[in-house]
Amino acid sequence: MRDFDIAYGAEVANARRDRRPIVALESTIVSHGLPKPDNLRVAREIESAVRAAGAVPATIGMVAGRLTVGLNDEELSHLASADSVAKLSVRDIAVAAAAGADGATTVAATSAVAVAAGIPIFATGGLGGVHREAAQTFDESADLVTLARTPIVVVCAGVKSILDVGATLERLESLGVTVLGYGTRRFPGFFITDSGFEVDWSVDSPEEVADVIAAGLAHGVHSGGTVVANPLPPDQQLDPDLHDRTLADGLALLEREGVTGKAVTPFLLSHFHSATHGESLAVNVRIILRNAELAARIAVAAAAR
Question: What is the Cα–Cα distance from 63 to 290, expressed in whole angstroms?
Fold first, then answer.
């Protein structure tokens, strides 16, 4: 009988044994979110950012059916270069493992696996959410429902601006997911600093986030996730006018070509990359590196408590 237990990379296994701070990282950004060959370079930079801030990176993914927390460089390189890497949400993990597939974990899957591995902090770029035509298509990311039942802290730059941000915030509220603005009461819009929506709570330091985590554990009341929305500084964001023009053109192209479902997000992100001549990619990289560094600082603060 095949062994389907979660595997751990050596660095992560040692950190778990020694109770050192760990930050979970997704692999979808490596296989589906960034163009080759930038994807592997950026994946390594993300891990380096976590280490530089005092924590251990745990990139989660699947190679040949083996679900691994803490991919080594060879495994990371494989997922970055292979052409048939499945995009794994929570529902797909067991099926992909049984099939012996290569797979990259989404925000939802990474969150679920991280908690199963005892890792409470996760850094990503932006959350999935409610798609703009959801009233007709019911298209909503599994990220939202998973966060409602998964006690993890997700550091992100808000919701991807290609989605319906207002509707996503409403769904997060209905699902009981805590949303904190990091140093702001304005919810970030991924490529842009301000999505146009407010949040009810804000924190100003990793120690304050660690206090929120500690309070939640002590109370034992809230079993869902916490989103730490970390906006880009205004001077690092994509030019808002360029963003709005590119988004409008991308949505029109999306409708014209009939792209739906899981293909929507990578399609629009690819459009942003080409239409902004790589500016959006540079912003995307800044986003994930800043979030990785902040998540590591939160993990260190939480461990110190």
Answer: 27
- Of the candidates 75, 140, 160, 293, the residue annotated as catalytic is 160
Active site residue 160: yes
CB of 259 closer than 8 Å to CB of 131:
no
- For residue 202, pLDDT over 90 is answered with yes
pLDDT 10s digits, 60-70: 999 999 999 99
Dump pLDDT digits (tens) for 118-146: 999 999 999 988 877 766 666 778 899 99
The active-site residue out of 26, 47, 140, 293 is 26
